[in-house]
Amino acid sequence: MTQPMVRLSGLYKIFGACDKDVLHHVQDGMGKEELLAQHGHVLGLNNINVDMQAGEITVVMGLSGSGKSTLIRHLNRLIEPTAGEIIVQGEDVMQLSEDGLRHARQEKMSMVFQKFALLPHKTVLKNAGMPLSVRGEDEVTCDREAAKWLDRVGLSGFENHYPAQLSGGMQQRVGIARALTANTPIMLMDEAFSALDPLIRTDMQDLLLELQKELHKTIIFITHDLDEALKLADHLVILKDGFVVQQGEPQHILLNPNDPYIEDFVSDINRARVLRVRSIMTPLVDGKVPKDADGEVDVNDTLESMIARSGGDTSHAYVVKDGEQTVGTLDMTELVRALVPRVASEAGARQS
Amino acid sequence: MAFYDKLFSALGLSDWCGTSDDKAPLSLADLAAQAGGQEASGPLIPIPSFDNLHESCNRVWQSRDVTNGIEEGFLAAKPVLKTVLDPITQPLSWMLDGALWLFEAMPWFIMVPLLVAISWYASRSRPVTIFVAVSIMLLAVVDHYDVAMQTLSIIFVCTTISVLFGVPIGIAMSKSDRLQKSVVPLLDLLQTLPTFVYLIPLIFLFSVTESKLYGIAIILYAIVPVIRLTDLGIRLVDRDVIEAANAFGMNDRQKLMRVQLPLALPNIMAGINQTIMMSLAMVVIASLVSAPGLGVNVLRGIRNLELGVGIVAGIGIVLLAVILDRVSKAALTRVDKTQVKH
Ligand SMILES: Nc1ncnc2c1ncn2[C@@H]1O[C@H](COP(=O)(O)OP(=O)(O)OP(=O)(O)O)[C@@H](O)[C@H]1O
Ligand SMILES: [Mg+2]
């Protein structure tokens, strides 16, 4: 496998004056509550090991206070770690000088914030052009690039407005345009859509996916919303009290949660809409195409669309295609079984 | 016999104190008592002051030694202070005198339209501008135009210098908690000391004929709000915006010039407004030490009991105060509006 774009290894963060001194307690297995009660320090991150691949959206999910913001702020060292390594494009961020760090922030990673964090006294155009003007680009270049990306996020015509004159959704579009103008390979998004209402939020998620299809950035996206996480993630990292409970392919986590915390999380979502055919199909053995199939489906179809297509008839079976290639078969009975969360199915099994 | 004699003998300090025969006259009360031919009869237990203790023990100071000491100390330090402070503060005298000359030399038919134009430019408000024009004409009609211009010239110089020094000091304070902790008590002191109190050492240091004397007094008093509000304004800048500035790799200078100062501007302007008002308040008091202007007429009113003169000058000061306040406040709201809140 190629080198990951970002690698966090053995990352610890403890908030407090003597963080280095109490680190060994955490390494010996002390939890967040004990640490606070006995030593008065807050455990932010606990032994984080995550690889973030180039061109993928890595989603970090967890409840409030689980350390998501703390984690993402380590990548550009807005927060200093207590211990551990942060490698970005093969370069150790901890070894950077002050200038080197500023350079990395300007050229390697841009950030989108939950509360937008635009400059209220600057126009939308100047806000979007800010990353370039910080680097010392001339005004014409800044304005041209800013206008280009503003147009791309659907804000042309608003260049001369001030942020306060725009709705939340539009302000966040400016935030995204600003990050895109920076033209960095990595984008950090801390709950970028959490302050928006549901409809706008869906729009913004679609916008992000659309941009990503074309730009192939390495995006680290923070959210506390599982639906959002599942929609966006190529790689999902679930945090709880500062440690990684489970990480991997989102569909895999959904089907095989390894912790009651995650089972709780996943029990509430609309599985039919999230799960895709590829996750539950029976892979093809020795290239034999079953004859009795009722039709062909795509690997990336959702189960919801399959149910609609079969009219709810569980006796059907389909051939699964990935492009031109046949890759497996889908039995509707399997599909229905996959719709029941594991906890519930176990409970059912125990009763009978 | 003095009340505290027993105390000193009990402590075995009688020898150290020396003989108490020494009947140097102690205080006015003692002299009066001696004249009356009897021991001074104070309260049952006199307060243990220097003077009372001195009655029992010669070695103890008298209170007048304290005031003398301060005075002598100050006088001893004066040549050094003067050689340092005199050249540093000399430009202030030039500026004050220069501005005074300029404001007086400028013919009124240029000055008045100029002031009105400045008001319009700063406030962009028609009522404010009209008010300024009418007020200046009112002052002129009662022959107070010249003194009003003198006062205005002093305020102009002192406010400018206060801003020039106050804003950088405020910025430095906002960057360092240590500096803030040490400067704030000093600012409190400057603001709470009765204004007359720091005129006293200044009179000793500089001669009363020099204009920098009142210049320094006014600046010391009026610089406080601009420092405070610059510090506060920068500290109040939205932390999320600062974080964004950091995340996009701004250096400290860029952060200051592009984010902190612009976002703190409404607060800084409020500080400047207060600084202007406070220099006006002080310029009246400063006429005690030869500052020209409306204050002189007020003083004349008090000294010679010329009621009319005092009141007209007083009303003139009020008019000037309202003008300065309205214009600077209008400028402030204008700045506020371009930074519409979230
Ligand atoms: N500067 C700090 N000093 C002390 N504790 C902190 C600090 N910053 C964060 N914490 C603590 O670290 C933990 C993780 O905080 P963090 O902000 O990363 O959570 P989060 O997952 O982003 O939550 P949210 O969804 O509310 O944004 C919390 O318990 C928080 O109280
Ligand atoms: Mg957060």
From TrEMBL, chain A:
The complex is probably composed of two ATP-binding proteins, two transmembrane proteins and a solute-binding protein. This is Quaternary amine transport ATP-binding protein. It is found in: Cell inner membrane. One of its GO terms (cellular component) is plasma membrane. It comes from Pseudaestuariivita atlantica. Keywords: ATP-binding, Cell inner membrane, Cell membrane, Membrane, Nucleotide-binding, Transport. Pfam families: ABC_tran. It is a peripheral membrane protein. It catalyses: a quaternary ammonium(out) + ATP + H2O = a quaternary ammonium(in) + ADP + phosphate + H(+).
UniProtKB/TrEMBL annotation, chain B:
GO terms for biological process: choline transport; glycine betaine transport. GO terms for cellular component: ATP-binding cassette (ABC) transporter complex. It comes from Pseudaestuariivita atlantica. Residues 148-328 form the ABC transmembrane type-1 domain. It is found in: Cell membrane. Its main location: membrane. Keywords: Cell membrane, Membrane, Transmembrane, Transmembrane helix, Transport. This is Glycine/betaine ABC transporter permease. PROSITE patterns: ABC_TM1 (PS50928). GO terms for molecular function: amine transmembrane transporter activity; carnitine transmembrane transporter activity. PANTHER family: GLYCINE BETAINE/PROLINE BETAINE TRANSPORT SYSTEM PERMEASE PROTEIN PROW, GLYCINE BETAINE_PROLINE BETAINE TRANSPORT SYSTEM PERMEASE PROTEIN PROW. It is a multi-pass membrane protein. Coiled coil: none annotated. The chain crosses the membrane at residues 99-121, 128-145, 151-174, 186-207, 213-230, 263-287, 307-324. Pfam families: BPD_transp_1. The keyword Transport applies. The keyword Ribonucleoprotein does not apply.
